[in-house]
Design goal:
Elements: E1 3-11, E2 15-23, E3 28-37, E4 41-43, E5 46-48, H1 51-71, E6 74-82, E7 88-91, H2 113-119, H3 122-129, H4 138-143, E8 152-155, H5 156-165, E9 170-171, H6 172-175, H7 190-195, E10 206-207, E11 212-215, H8 218-224, E12 231-233, H9 239-245, E13 254-259, E14 263-269, H10 276-280, E15 284-287, E16 293-299, H11 303-312, H12 318-326, H13 348-356, H14 363-389, E17 395-399, H15 406-416, E18 420-422, H16 427-440, H17 449-459, E19 463-465, E20 472-473
Parallel strand pairs: 1-6, 6-12, 9-10, 13-17, 17-18
Antiparallel strand pairs: 1-2, 2-3, 4-5, 7-8, 11-12, 13-14, 14-16, 15-16, 18-19, 19-20
Helix pairs in contact: 9-16, 12-14, 13-14, 14-15
């Protein structure tokens, strides 16, 4: 009998991957079979995602994954999809998109924020949804739509799942980022839809991580060569939900930083916190795997660094500029890495220099400013999370791409005064695969999050950073 393996489609705002996950005696292992770029584009006068090209890459990745599995005598039994949050595509009854999906970096919501809050004051929104204010939350994007009649909204991972299976559902961890989900019930808040004149049927029925979305459409089977019985399993389709599920924590009092384009900084709870103090601190209550609450703030991230590198092009390498930045003394200028001024792309080094209000003459100085600023944001946010939740923090886990940035990890340990455990880099894909494996019975259908994290610790490579001390590999 062929060995069961799992395909994870893991797409971020700047790149995507199709990954094969295998369950071994010690835990899961991953094999990236296809990487592809992603990014916003000017399409029809707005910043949008080229979903057509994105789906073509997904199909190419699934084909390559099937070929690799066949060569090793393996069988892909299921597929899971995770992406970034808040964005969606509008589809007609026949499944065709009305247009390429808008990106959250488009400025179209600026003119509707006040209108939404006049109808539903933000205090009421927060009491209902527990969601932090971000100008690009789905609720504001929908308010900017000229027409929502006779269409359905599918969040990006749900849109991918629909194109694979023909089934329309809304996975709950991503639904919790829309600003339309009731934080107490875990269901859509119908009164918000009515007040804002959003059709109640705009989003399909909710689905939980671990549920089966469906099997592959015949056209997908023909294109990829996958078995018609291959299932698409709902995972934590918001990439941060999958990443937090795979945090290799062995103790209860941990905090996490999912570090990538954005930094998601917080703690894991079992009940939402919607106090006035929490609202004022702009903390969010998003759903996690197994009904947990990701109590966090969406903070500035490595978008600042990647945009600078893009501007500098081939003149500067990441390795060299990080080395030079590490050699600079502490106490240099910083910026507000959370500022909305840095959301849009374009000439990031100049904008950072202007915001710093001090001379940043070299590329290394700009990079050091970015990383010092991020570490300060992390420290401040984690202190607030501990105070607002009453949850002490003994260790900080950094997962995702930022876990590879040694300087950022050390600066975070120094700024927080806490040990930092960095890794795994592919936490999102691990969480995706492990939820699939649990659904398949390979991890035990009743495996808890604690057991999922123990499986991650079995194979994950991590590095530990002590405050003001050099890191050590574990």
């Amino acid at each position: 009998m062929s060995t069961a393996v799992y395909a994870a489609i893991d797409i971020g705002a700047s790149s995507g991957r199709v990954i094969l996950g295998r369950m071994g005696a010690d835990g899961p292992t991953l094999d990236v079979v296809h990487r592809f770029p992603n990014g916003v584009q000017q399409i029809d006068g707005a910043l949008r995602w080229d979903f057509t090209a994105l789906f073509d890459e997904v199909l190419r990745g699934l084909t390559l994954a099937r070929e690799q599995a066949d060569a090793k005598g393996e069988r892909i039994v299921s597929i899971g999809v995770d992406t970034w949050a808040v964005d969606y595509g509008l589809v007609h009854d026949d499944g065709a998109l009305t247009s390429q999906p808008h990106s959250y970096r488009d400025s179209r919501t600026a003119e509707v924020l006040d209108t939404v809050h006049e109808k539903v004051p933000f205090e009421r929104l927060y009491e209902t949804t527990g969601l932090q204010f971000l100008p690009f939350n789905t609720i504001y994007q929908l308010a900017a739509e000229p027409n929502l009649e006779n269409v359905q909204a599918l969040l990006i991972p749900d849109l991918l799942g629909f194109r694979l299976t023909g089934e329309r559902r809304t996975e709950v961890t991503n639904a919790s980022t829309t600003g339309l989900l009731d934080a107490s019930t875990g269901n859509f808040a119908g009164e918000l839809f009515d007040t804002l004149r959003i059709p109640r049927a705009l989003f399909p029925t909710l689905i939980e991580p671990g549920d089966t979305l469906g099997t592959l459409l015949p056209a997908i089977v023909e294109h990829t060569g996958l078995d018609p019985a291959t299932k698409v399993i709902a995972v934590g389709s918001h990439d941060t939900a999958s990443a937090v599920a795979a945090v290799p924590a062995g103790q209860a009092n941990f905090a996490y930083i999912s570090s990538g384009t954005w930094s998601l900084v917080g703690v894991e709870l079992h009940e939402p916190i919607r106090t006035g103090e929490s609202r004022a601190a702009n903390f969010t209550n998003e759903r996690g795997v197994d009904g947990t609450i990701r109590y966090l703030r969406n903070c500035g991230g490595l978008w600042l660094l990647s945009e600078c590198l893009r501007e500098w092009d081939a003149e500067v390498t990441l390795e060299d500029v990080l080395r030079d930045a590490a050699a600079l003394p502490a106490g240099g200028p910083t910026i507000d890495a959370d500022s909305d001024a840095f959301i849009a792309p374009g000439n990031m080094p100049a904008r950072i220099r202007e915001a710093a209000g001090a001379a940043l003459e070299s590329e290394a100085a700009v990079v050091r400013c970015i990383l010092d600023s991020l570490a300060q944001v992390y420290a401040r946010t984690l202190a607030q999370a501990a105070e607002l939740s009453g949850r002490p923090i003994d260790v900080v886990h950094i997962v995702g791409g930022g876990s590879q940035n040694r300087l950022l990890c050390q600066l975070t340990a120094d700024a927080t005064g806490l040990p930092v455990v960095a890794g795994p880099v592919e936490a999102t894909a691990l969480g995706n695969v492990l939820v699939q494996a649990r659904a398949d019975g390979a991890l035990g259908k009743n495996a808890t999050l604690k057991e999922i994290r123990a499986a991650v610790r079995g194979t994950a490579q991590t590095s530990r950073y002590e405050p003001s001390k050099a890191f050590s590999t574990t």
